[in-house]
Write a structure and sequence with these properties.
Blueprint: H1 13-24, H2 32-45, E1 58-62, H3 68-76, E2 81-86, E3 106-110, E4 124-130, H4 138-150, E5 152-163, H5 182-185, H6 188-194, H7 207-217, E6 220-228, H8 233-243, H9 248-251, E7 253-261, H10 270-273
Parallel strand pairs: 1-2, 1-4, 2-3, 4-5
Antiparallel strand pairs: 5-7, 6-7
Helix pairs in contact: 2-3
The protein binds S-adenosylmethionine.
Length: about 270
């Protein structure tokens, strides 16, 4: 698929993906060795920590890159079926060693999750997503979360990790400027002036905003863990004048790890009328 064929979804996806593609052309990220290491790290550091039964479950991974985590779940966690979705078919960029069509119970689909025909009529027990939803605009993300809610079986789980706006690498500018957290201090037009042609886009949501959106979709929040954000005292002091209007809890939350559940029973709407 060419970038020009990719539908605009939320955050100027076409432009974003061109920027992103350059990054993913880092050759080691398109090797089986790198993918195996990454899948194990995703499991050890994120998903193994949630209290969930994986064996025999049907799982969808959103933002699956070339599908390494989907394969890990099949082989190591004995899930029944593993479906991966990515806006770009990165599995096609991999060497011939990765014969994903030959892996039983694995399916990879490229495109917009809201449109991919093969998955619209299906329900999953678990949906996973790591390092991806911060790349979507809040409006598009709301649509994706609603889709996930509707495509989970009752009692099913959405387990996820995302950076927040207060991540140390929230704007991916940490390699370009030594000023900490420039995305929080400077407006987008200023940053674009500083780095002409910059195409990387970041969802400007804090941990609280993400949690509100999850609740608004209808999910119960079963478990929430945070990783560090603007936590060094010197940064807080240095920028307090410019960031006093954020809560310290949000400033200090750069990553979130969340277990969400679709309730088994539909909520009784009569509660709203009382
Ligand atoms: C930073 S990578 C994370 C990959 C993998 N989940 C991991 O944790 O290693 C983000 C992935 O999300 C994909 N992505 C970005 N926008 C997307 C969208 N709207 N729908 C599906 N995938 C998307 C990108 O193409 C990329 O493969």
């Amino acid at each position: 698929m060419k970038n020009s064929q990719i539908k605009m979804v939320g955050l100027e996806m076409t432009k974003f993906n061109q920027g992103h593609k350059i990054k993913w052309e880092e050759p080691e990220k398109l090797t089986l060795e790198w993918g195996d290491r990454q899948a194990k790290a995703i499991w050890d550091e994120m998903f193994s920590r949630f209290e969930l039964e994986w064996e025999g479950k049907s799982v969808l991974d959103f933002g699956c890159m070339w599908g390494y985590f989907c394969r890990f779940l099949l082989e190591e966690q004995k899930v029944r079926e593993s479906v991966g979705i990515d806006i770009l078919p990165k599995w096609e960029d991999l060497s011939d060693e990765w014969n994903y069509q030959g892996v039983e119970n694995l399916e990879l689909f490229a495109g917009d999750i809201l449109d991919i025909k093969e998955i619209q009529g299906r329900k999953f027990d678990i949906i996973t997503t790591a390092g991806t939803i911060f790349l979507l605009s809040p409006t598009y993300l709301e649509g994706v979360l609603n889709w996930m809610y509707d495509h989970l079986a009752p009692g099913g789980s959405l387990v996820l990790q995302t950076r927040t706006f207060f991540s140390y690498n929230g704007g991916d500018l940490h390699n370009i400027t030594s000023i900490p957290f420039p995305q929080v201090i400077f407006s987008r037009p200023v940053i674009e002036k500083f780095i002409p042609g910059r195409e990387r886009i970041l969802n400007p949501m804090s941990a609280t905003a993400f949690l509100m959106l999850f609740r608004r979709t209808g999910f119960e929040i079963i478990n929430f863990r945070k990783g560090s954000g603007i936590n060094e005292a010197e940064h807080i002091d240095m920028f307090r004048q410019k960031t006093w209007y954020y809560t310290e809890r949000d400033l200090k939350t750069g990553d979130i790890f969340v277990h969400l559940k679709k309730p088994k029973l539909e909520r009784d709407l009569s509660e709203l009328r009382d």
